[in-house]
Amino acid sequence: MAVPKQHQSHSRTAKRRAQHGIAAPTGGGCPECGAPRLAHRVCSSCGTYGGRAVISPAKLDQ
Ligand SMILES: [Zn+2]
């Protein structure tokens, strides 16, 4: 049986287990241009949201 060399604190165990429920951010690419985009956010590539242009891509370059 493996014997721990040093005691691991409850805090350190909890910090490790805090990562167990983490998943990758959801949301695929932009339906308009296919660029990676977070869900419920205006596309930073083409400036569309919900199928319509919200901001012009020229403004995004500034
Ligand atoms: Zn887009």
UniProtKB/TrEMBL annotation:
Residue segments, region Disordered: 1-30
GO molecular function, one term: structural constituent of ribosome
Keywords, alphabetical: Ribonucleoprotein, Ribosomal protein
Biased composition (Basic residues): 7-19
Signal sequence bounds: none
GO cellular component: large ribosomal subunit
Coiled-coil features, chain-numbered ranges: none
One Pfam family this sequence matches: Ribosomal_L32p
GO annotation, biological process: translation
Keyword Hydrolase recorded: no
NCBIfam families in UniProt: rpmF_bact
HAMAP family membership: Ribosomal_bL32
Family label: Belongs to the bacterial ribosomal protein bL32 family.
Entries under PANTHER family matching the protein: 50S RIBOSOMAL PROTEIN L32, LARGE RIBOSOMAL SUBUNIT PROTEIN BL32
Protein's name according to its UniProt entry: Unannotated protein
Species annotation: freshwater metagenome
